[in-house]
Batch of 2 targets.
Target 1
Amino acid sequence: MGNQSLSHSSNKVLKVSKAAALLVLIIGFIVLLGWILDIPVLKSILPNFVSMKFNTALAFVFSGVALLLFHIEGNKIWIRQLTRLCAAIVTLIGGLSFFQYIFGIDFGLDQLLIREAPGALNTSHPGRMSPATAFNFLFFGMALLLDSWRKLLTARVLVIIVAFVAIFAFLGYLLDVSTLYSIGPYTSMALHTSITFILIAISYMSARKVFNYQFIIRSGFWVAILAFAFIGVTSYWNTVRQTEDIKSVTHTRNVLQKLTEFLSDIKDVETGVRGFVITGDEQYLEPYYAKYDSIETLINELRGLTSDNPHQQRNIDLLEPIVKNKIVFIHETMNLRKTKGLKAIVIEQYNSLRGKRFMDEIRSIVGTMINEENKLMMIRNKKSQLSSLNTIRTTIFGGIISFISLAVVFFLLLRENRVRRQAEVALRKSERKLTIRNKIANIFITIPDEGMYEEVLQVVLDVLESKYGVFGYLDNRGDFVVPTMTQSIWEKCQVPDKKFVFPHETWGDSSWPQAIREKRTIYSNDLSTNIPQGHISINRHISLPIIQKGEVVGLFQVANKESDYDEDDIELLNDIANHIAPILNARLQRDRQERERKQAEIALENANKELESFSYSVSHDLRAPLRSIDGFSLALLEDCADKIDETGKDYLNRIRLSTQRMAQLIDDMLKLSRITRMEMRRNTVDLSALAESLASELQKTETDRQVEFVISNGLTVDGDEHLLRIVLDNLLGNAMKYTSKHPRARIEFGSLPGDDSKPIFYVRDDGAGFDMKYAGKLFGAFQRLHSAAEFSGTGIGLATVQRIIHRHGGRVWAEGKLNEGATFYFTL
Amino acid sequence: MEKKIILLVEDNPDDELLTIRALKQNNIKNEVIVAHDGAEALDFLFGTGVYTNRDLRKMPEVILLDLNLPKVDGLEVLQRIRADERTELLPVVILTSSREESDLINGYKLGANSYIRKPVDFKQFTEAVRQLGLYWLVLNESPPKR
């Protein structure tokens, strides 16, 4: 099951990869078309969005091609070269664009192939992709190159970085968190660009089959950690900025305060001077003397405070001379009053309104300054608010991301745990099954008799925690035989521990016959109702047929478990049954064959015995008439000699001869058949000794000849002594016979080395020999190469020899030359 | 001197004729009683059946016993002969055409004195009979009469 889903899911994964790559390619293509045909809608995919740059689209097209090439079968070199080419182009586009940003150079890349109208949205440099996009293409291109050189791990890391950059930009757009997608004044990564990068990452990761649960769990943790770090960093960053913002707000307030102070000081001075002018009382000049220095100081302070603001500096530059003029004017006024009196001032100064003009100018400049500062404060406030909002959003974003990734990790870990535990359970189950199988197989092998059924049943009962059970087989008549049915189960079983046979006709309808007939498992967790009398009560049982090649060979029945039988039990029993089926079948066949063999053995023995008695009676019964024929022929010859002429006598003699010959033939035939049937008893036989004793016997029988026997010593062999004696008897006897016409004869018995270390024995004589033309007939039963007149014999000797040699598993052959002798060879 | 009896137990009439002829040819002039089957042989020996009222003091000098007999088998006859004290010492020569080793062994086991195979060649047979006669009737010391 695991393997199936693996290939299924890996097929799906590859499909996803292919689809994503195709999408990337299409997006790039559409944008390119948009640029080439100058259709703005196509350039930005989604209307009213910033257009995707031409180079970006080009790089996407090449990326898509490279990713699709992953899915072409085969390891052809051209695929790899093409992928590397696309990767190189992507790297080049991205890298060069990125370096343009870093080193501030313009390679003229951006407008190389197409011209973008200046003033396009959010574009720092016309036609140039955002730095993030450039960075991504650079890294992705490198990743593809590394991948083609099988540095898969590094490639994967690069693609993950690319993915993160794109995801961040995407989420930034989604959550309106601008920090995520724009870096300073530079072009930000467009929404569709980020989406396309995400597709690229998905396509690559699926193609390289990175997306498995392990990967997700591990990256989940990393994402959570990074998210926390991100939150931490941004919070810190923000706190810093807030502090600064507060500082600058305070600063502005300071400035404002100083300005107001300045204005009031000037007014005080003026009022004082006016009072003096009116009254001539020097007391009114107090503020003037008091504030005279401080005004100067204030101006310097203001200059210092606003040193970062060129506008304010300019204002102060305007202010200072006027203030100075004003002060000069005040001095003049004072002096004038002191010297000339009030009327002079009124006429001189108030008529010219110079004083007022100065004041007005001062007021206006200070007013401008105050406005400026207020404006500044408003801007700073807004910025501060915005950044707080950003921070909040980033924090929330970070928090959500880490929460989600932790949640995902948590659930995946739970799942992994569950999967692992399931695997453990499955493993233990299969281990258990294996142990049971081994046990049972062992029983089958080690116990040769019917006791095996009981043992196997015991194992099954233990495994299934059942108290009673049945294990039986179907014999060739289709009857159900249960070697395990004992009296403990069913009283009707008259003999304890004897097997019980259920003839096919008597089966009935209880669950086990049903299981056998319908070839399926029948189980029940209830009390059985249709049990025969005297049978123990059955509460809960499973009847499971053992099926081999579609035919039922046996049946398991288990019953009376303490708790209910469940799916697992049935599965286990089924597994055992399936495992046992061929073994049981083989065993039954073997038993059957054993029986047949025994029967055949008995039949053979009987046949032999019959043959034995047949031969006996044949020889005996055939001999009696022969005896009569011979006897009465002789009687005729003797008693009626005078009544029979020579011819008659001759005929009678011939009759007698034939009769005797027939008797000989019968004897030989009997002997031959007995030799074939005789039991062979193997011993170490000293052939030399045998030959010696036979030779000396033969020599005694023919004293009128000089026969020399040359017998090699120490020739021993493994065989039946009696039979080998017959062999040598025949061969040496033949040798004697066929040298009988020679007054001197030499008979040898020895051995020659033969191949595969088996010696070749031979008996050689220098007698009548034979024509090699007829060598084939030598060993035939009753075959002779000489007439009975030349040499006596029935032709059974060599046939006997051959039969004996063959029974020893050896070969026998002969060589001869007419009148020069013959040699008979044999191996054993 | 009483004539020595030879009991010939032989079922084959040809063999019977030939044996008797052979005996005659060798001048064995003893009375030859022929029993044609085992039962008849036992009848003769124990004075039952046809031979009731026979004088049981006249036991044969030698019994020539064929093995393949109807009614009562030769070996069984031998067994009965050896079982009865009236006949247990009588010399029994098994004269048969059987070459079976088992017959040979059983014959001796049951107490036959000798085992001779009937040759087909009549000449040899005659010779065998002559030697038989010579041995058992002339040379051999017969057991004392009971």
Note: Chain B has a mean pLDDT of 86.
Target 2
Amino acid sequence: MIVFENVFKIDCTDIDIAREQAMRRLFFLSGKNRLRDHEFYALQNLSFSLAKGESLLITGPEDVRRAIARLICGLTRPNSGSVEVSGSARLVSSSAVGVTPFMTLQAYLYLISTLLGSDRRSASETARNIMHAFAVENLATAKIADISRDIIKKLAFYTSIFVDSDVYVFNEALKIKDPESAELFQKRLDEILRTRTVVILEETLTGLPLQPVKAMMVDAQGTSLYLGSYESAAKFHTNLSSWQETYGNVGDLSSSLKQHLAQYKKNPEGKEGTEIIVKKIATDELGKLTGNTGPVIAGPYLSDAGMELIYWIPFLRWLLESSRLDKHNLIAISRCGAEQWYCELGGKYIDICDVMEPEEFASMINLRIAEGIKQFSVTETETRLLSKITAKIDIRDYHLIHPSLMYNLFTPVWKRHIPAEIIKDYTIYTPLQLKNNRRIDRLPDDYIAVKFNFCPQFPDTPQNRVFLEDLLTELSRQYPIVSLNTGLQVDRHTDFEFASENNLKDMTNFRNLLELQTNVIAGARLFVGTHSSISYLAPLLGRKTLYIYSETNSGIFPVSFQLFNSLPSDFFRDSFSTLNISDLKPIDLLEEIKKILKI
Amino acid sequence: MKWHSIFNIGWLLFKRDFQYRYRLTYFGYTWAFVRPLLSVVPLILVGKQFNFGANIQGVSYEVFSFVGFILFQVFFDSILMPQWFIRRIRKIVKDIAFPHAAIIWGSCCYILFNLAIYIVELALLFVLFKVPLHPSMVLALLGIPAILISGLSIGIIIAPITFIYLDFRYGLPIVTGLLLWITPILYISPEKGLLHTINKFNPLTYLINVPRAWLIGIASDTQLFILCFSIFAGMFLLGMKFYHRAMSIAIDRIV
């Protein structure tokens, strides 16, 4: 078995710098993944696993293939990450290593067999068998200097596949040039493929004398573009090549990804290319972050609160954990008092409302809502905002993780171009622990928090309005309710207005909006609302939650709904349930609420 | 780690290089006998001329200095051989994964071969100068491996570094002369002065003098020998850890 986990390998184009860096590493003086001048990533956050008995073809540039081969065989170690190989691994080579002119052929074959792991008896037997197989017994006592180099290389190659090993790594050694020994070689190769773990490293996918089970394509930056079945590899390779021809270098992703998405619907075959691109975005970003020792700014987040809770913050959590970034270096920028959502990530929090006047902030939000709230790129306003903030906290150089990274990454999932499960590869969901939860005095001790806004899964229709009106009227008679409506709008969701005795309107401003709503939800016995916006907070805080909807296949609701349902059942400490009210009456919902509250 | 495999590979690598090395010469294995003699005989002649052996009791200056030189040579071989041997097999190390401890054993084979030559020469010398046998000569069987391990404790740290920079390879022969003269090998340590101080704090003084005393049957300070050896033994254990870690880094830089 072979397991590569988040492997980074740095190489260098300048031999003098390489030697200096090696000396530093010898004496623990080098940062793990910091790139110095002339250094580059031979491998970047490479992960794959190969079970016992499987075969894998890896294609990519020569230095990438060489790095992988040497890591598997234990000839080198990664700069970070881990490589685990069960048993012995052999790099099959056609070069006659260890030869001296005065050695006899028998002594040389004995030496090679021993170096490759044979004991004394097996090594002698191996040397005799190989000489017999190639009918060169008469050369047993001849000196190497007197034997043809081609014969030596052929015998050395065959010895390296004949001596048993658990893992065989063929680095461009699979194509046999000598037709006389092809049959002998093929027989041994078939046996190896049947019983051993095999890794084949070649420049291209085609022209191989065998078909491996899996294939992996690695690009020049050392990141994996594809890992899957060998049959599909050629198809993906063609798709990616044509994608690159059409849209340019995979490196320029955000603009080319938009183009790709626009073209996607015309070309469903491009689906695999989209997965590759999504993976490339995430891996590239992770690579930039890993080893970073300076400040990292995450934000400024100015979009939907719901997306912030169930995509942005879990994505940040994944980035921070995977890159092993020092949390003290993180500076999260958001708005309206979302500080408590970022506490657990560590680091510092800066609220945009502390650096902008309320009118200025409101104007900015209104403009965003009008133009499209999702952040797909860094705008001029955000650039000015970042300059203002970094000047205030006296930071000049920093790494920026902008929300556009997350939006670009997950858009193919929201548009259902690729499976929703892919989100779980780039997010970490944990319950939210509040550090400074303050109970709001004027609210009842025991209450149900409610928030309903109109969205694709609960559209603004007369039926839905009547339903809500009746529901809330009856509910407020039987149980104290607190409405999360504040009268302030910070995203595109329009709240359903309901006159409730307990509301937040007169105590809310832009600065404390999300903080107050968070505290209200945290203190509620139950939360009832639509599955959108800040409503996502309730189950994350472990509150009993009941979501209602009337349309199932609209917007990104199916994706977030599927995501919530697929998270481990013990993730939500209290119950989380959903109800399609399209065929229900308000009284049915009330019964459901009573059941949840066990009244 | 399979010990028999390490010993077998180390022995084969030594045999391969040993045969190749001496096959390239006309006089072959004769050089192995002649090399230490050519080094020490002029030193003894000079030392005797300048009466370095004035205070030596119970044995001739020639025996005294030759034994000391041989023991020093064992120590120095143990420092030199690992890095020298590793560079000679560097192409194998670069392309074939085998237990790197075998390289240490291979260099030990060289050290032990040289030691065998030294012992033969020492035996001839004892016969020539009619040195009587002493029971303490048995202790020398413990002393010589201790000197070997002490030298190896430095040698195994230097070995991987020579894949990156050759300063040790070029510098060690130069350092030999310095070490030879700051250790009381060809002379008795003076009772005062700068040389006395240097000898007193030089651990080689005890590593060489005590086994020499055992071999030629004179009194010695065993405690300091044990102390120095303990320190080197500790270094050896740490050195092995460093060696294993360093090899996988240094191999990338083999040219």
Note: Residues 222-250 of chain B form the longest helix (29 residues).
